[in-house]
Write a structure and sequence with these properties.
11% helix
Length: 292
């Protein structure tokens, strides 16, 4: 796809977005004025009935949170955005102005990509004569907030590595609850005028018991007390049918895998992310020794 085809594709996308915001005004296909075109003829290429794309002065890229035309130093975002100035300006009744005065502001159409499937686009209004600040994808900020939480794997209280467990005796499994090991854990991230708040909490823990059995628990588990005797855990437990003598080091490798569900909102958007963490423990399981 050459440069002109790319521009035509962007113009078509712009028209669809404008139509959606204007209640489907009668917009036709549009051409795009290019930097090398004669200013006197480029306007005639615009086939949009209400307004068309002014190309060269809005052709800018930048990383999230940086300044138009460049990437912010130190940013780990791979998002790149291009801006096209809408000229002539949309009418004052256009919803995209969001109350801004068209006489004092310009509007740009932006299209962003992170090299994958994350390709946000839309319109941004800026004071006349000022370059547009690259748009910050709230999803990027949400992930940044999550990264600052230091989410950990389950803090296993039972089974313990030093514990001794018996075939046929119910094992109760539970974890200690804290902000970093179970949640809730809340953090925010800000870039420019956009602030995103994310709250993470473990939604389930899958225990791989080392004997070929997996147990899914939708909560932290119930702590065992001696008054329970030989009862099974009401929320999270397992019963070994064989000893760990045949396992490496004579112990079953137990893995507790937590799924963190993170709800976030900010920048006019909301969504959900998922993170997974693990903790391992070695468990010795023997048989009851009967003394005769």
């Amino acid at each position: 796809m050459d440069g002109h085809e790319v521009d035509r594709s962007r113009a078509s996308l712009l028209i669809r977005r404008l139509a959606a915001l204007t209640g489907a005004l009668p917009l036709a296909s549009a051409g795009v004025a290019h930097a090398g075109d004669d200013p006197g003829t480029s306007a005639s290429k615009c086939q949009v009935i209400k307004f068309c794309v002014g190309a060269s002065d809005g052709d800018q890229t930048g990383g999230s949170g940086g300044q138009a035309g460049g990437s912010q130093g130190g940013s780990d975002s791979k998002t790149q955005c291009r801006y096209d100035k809408v000229d002539p300006k949309p009418p004052a009744a256009w919803p995209g102005w969001k109350g801004a005065d068209p006489k004092k502001n310009d509007v740009y159409f932006y299209g962003c990509t992170d090299g994958g499937q994350n390709n946000p686009d839309g319109f941004v209004v800026v004071p006349t004569g000022q370059p547009p600040v690259p748009q910050v994808d709230p999803r990027v900020l949400a992930q940044r907030a999550v990264d600052s939480m230091t989410l950990l794997g389950p803090d296993i209280a039972s089974p313990r590595a030093a514990g001794k467990y018996t075939v046929g005796v119910p094992m109760w499994m539970w974890v200690n609850q804290s902000a970093t090991a179970y949640g809730p854990n809340t953090a925010t991230a800000t870039a420019g005028a956009v602030t995103v708040t994310a709250t993470a909490k473990v939604s389930k823990i899958v225990w791989t018991m080392g004997d070929g059995v997996s147990v899914t628990c939708n909560g932290p588990g119930t702590p065992y007390t001696s008054s329970e005797g030989m009862a099974q855990s009401p929320t999270c437990g397992h019963l070994y049918a064989k000893t760990s003598s045949g396992a490496q080091s004579g112990k079953f490798p137990v893995t507790a895998t937590s799924t963190w569900t993170i709800n976030w909102q900010g920048g006019g958007q909301a969504g959900q992310l998922t993170e997974v963490r693990q903790t391992n423990v070695q468990v010795a399981v023997g048989e009851v020794q009967v003394v005769r």
